[in-house]
Amino acid sequence: MANPPEQAAPNGAEIHIEVEDLSKVFGPDPQSIVPLLREGVSKDDILARTGHTVGLRDISLRVERGETFVVMGLSGSGKSTLVRCLNRLIEPTTGSVRLDGEDVLALGPRALRDMRRHKMGMVFQRFGLLPHRTVLANVTFGLRVQGVSRPERRERASAWIERVGLAGYEQALPRELSGGMQQRVGLARALCTNPEVLLMDEAFSALDPLIRREMQGELVRLQQELSKTIVFITHDLDEALRLGDRVAVLKDGFVVQVGTPVEIVTRPADDYVRAFVENVDRTRVLRARDALKFAPPGAAVAATGAARGRIDASATLGEALALIADLGGPVTVVGRKERLLGVLDETTALKAVTERPEVATGERA
Amino acid sequence: MPPFLTQPFPEAWRIPLRGWTNDGVSWLVATYGDVFRGITDTVLLLLVRVERGLAAMPWWLVVLLVALLVWHASGRRIWPAVTLSGLLVLVGTFGLWSEMMTTLAIMLIATLFTIVLGIPIGIAMARSDRLKTVLRPLLDGMQTMPSFVYLVPVVMFFGLGNVAAIIATFVYAVPPIIRLTDLGLRLVDAEVLEAAQAFGASERQTLAWVRLPLALPTIMAGVNQTIMMALAMVVLASMIGARGLGQEVLRGLQRGNVGLGLEAGLAIVFVAIVMDRITAGYSRRWDPTVKGR
Q: Which residues of chain A neighbour B189 with C-beta distances below 8 Å?
């Protein structure tokens, strides 16, 4: 099959994973349901009429190289099915998945194995570690599958074990480790084969809240060094907003909205997303630069003289508010190379925090 | 009402299964006699070697080896090793040492056969639901069919003696290991299997590195049950000419020698306890979900 021409995302970034019109139907004869999907028969009707469950429906997504792409949805939204369609742990019913332009669904068994061995690593919710093998053996699993020699396996694994903070635990068994440490093993195992893509299926959902935050921080830190393409599945909005460069919201097998965390929070595509983001702590998600958009028109220039301090545009709204409170007056927001972006005063900042998000129109993904 | 409803079971409906079976067995014996003789000779050769090996070992070495095995299986505990090897010494004091060695040899060979054939069948059964549907009633039949039913044809095929006993024991004892191999493989954590798949493991790699190791405790439980069932066959097997402890029990029965019967019976129980502790110990030791090995 001929590869399509190189496609570029609107901002010029390179598309790494492209999912097009992907549907997944569970049941005895999924192909027979495809015409119904085309006709637009609803999920409930299909279930009632044919006993088939529609897991995913007409999913189209483009994941850019090096970004962390979060797929968020409640249980039953199809997010775990979606991530498994990417490496074909689950076979999609229709549609296409392309990795670097290569049709993943057209791969034969051997080529598929090769892709899984070399190009995609995966991290699982309940870790999926071999309970009878040591940390070292678990981390080297992918390399062993590839047929890499034992000394080389050890060498490469040691580096990753150290990098995820497990040095000294090489000979421990998984059950001797805490949940957070077990998931570090899972992460090291996925990274050890040096894949371009990391699939993370609810990777931190089984962890305690504190450990979860710690692991999120760890992932952000690692990602700054590694720049992998990460597809991260979660049901936790805070996690999605914290980790994602972009977030796709899934509902009943549909993509409801795709956007940056700020877009999701400030311009939810529909009532469903709006209900989701309503209680989000916006002081942590929004940046100083985003808050400027809430200023009344023309106010920025007029207030420049009153500014008492300055804050970086990428600082969170919470930090900006703290500074405004400390100084007792507005602050200037500066971007790269100290470029003045605007002035943020108390009223505008508070408006950014409290304003109920409008449901955007015409922005559906 | 049609007449056949009012009368006793219609004679005309008779299926001559017994005739077919008898003819079939005779035909098999006549046609494949050489094959059966070949199997008999091979098994006999193996048995004689094992028996001679056991007989050649000084008694204290056997006791020591069993003690070591129990010690290792029980997680390096001294007491089980001492008490269980003590039981073997007790059998010696009954004057039944060589009979015990004979029984042990028959048992080991029968168990070896069940493992060598049972585990691959179990693996195949775990992979194919269709095969499982076919095999299940067969296994049920093997376990519930009264042993006397197949003792006779087994003798016709393999002659009287230890070999026929081993074959009959195999038929009776192989179902649990097949079943538990299948069960163990099917119970392996789906997420671990998914992980293996996600890293591109081939089916063979998954079987060798993930499925079998994780199913091992269950498979060992199957070995344990198989051995226990094989021991339950010891006396029955002596009726078709197997020597060893079963023969002594039978002799005690035939001569009204209650004491001899008890001694030989106790000896069988002791062997069973020792075998059970060893295999159950390994089943537990190899279980990754049990803490502290």
A: 128
The SS3 call for residue A16 is: strand
Cα dihedral sign, B13-B17-B20-B23 = negative
Residue where the block lists tokens 């070992």 = B57
Q: Phi and psi at residue B256, in whole multiples of 5°?
A: 65, 25
Average pLDDT over residues A24-38: 91
The answer for A 62-121 residues in CB contact with B (under 8 A) is 87, 89, 112-118, 120-121
Number of helices (H) and strands (E) in chain B: give both, helices first.
Answer: 14, 0
- The interface residues of chain A toward chain B in range 133-152, judged by CB-CB distance below 8 A, are 141-142, 144-146
Q: Which tokens sit at A354?
A: 């409290």
Contact list in B for residue A126 (CB cut-off 8 A) is 191
* H helix or E strand, kind and range, residue A327: helix A317-327
Strands A120-123 and A197-201: parallel
Task: Using alpha carbons, list the distances in angstroms from residue B288 to A7, A342, B188, B210, B292.
Answer: 48, 61, 12, 12, 9
User: Would the pLDDT of B240 be above 50?
Assistant: yes
Q: What angle do CA A210, A214, A218 make, to 5 degrees?
A: 165
Q: Looking at A5-14, A110-119, A277-286, B173-182, which range is the least confident one?
A: A5-14
Beta bridge pairs of residue A69: A231, A246
Q: pLDDT band for position B63 (50/70/90)?
A: very high
- Does A353 have pLDDT greater than 90? no
Q: Cα–Cα distance between A78 and A88 in angstroms, integer? A: 14
- Average pLDDT, rounded, for chain A: 87
Nearest to A128 among B194, B209, B213 (CB): B194
Residue A86 — pLDDT band, cuts 50, 70, 90?
very high
Amino acid A301 reads V
Compute CA distances A284 → A125, A223, A261, A318, B89, whole Å: 26, 20, 11, 6, 76
Tens digit of each residue's pLDDT (9 = 90 or more) over A175-193: 999 999 999 999 999 999 9
Q: Beta A68-73 vs A246-251: how paired, if at all? A: parallel
> What per-residue confidence (pLDDT) applies to A362?
44
Does this complex have an ipTM over 0.85?
no
User: Angle of helix A179-192 relative to helix A209-226, nearest 10 degrees?
Assistant: 20
- Give the dihedral sign, CA A229/A236/A162/A175: negative
Q: In the structure encoding, which two tokens stand for residue A280, read together? A: 């989000």
- Cβ(A337)–Cβ(A311) below 8 Å: no
Q: Would you state the structure tokens that stand for residue A325, as one six-digit string?
A: 């409170």
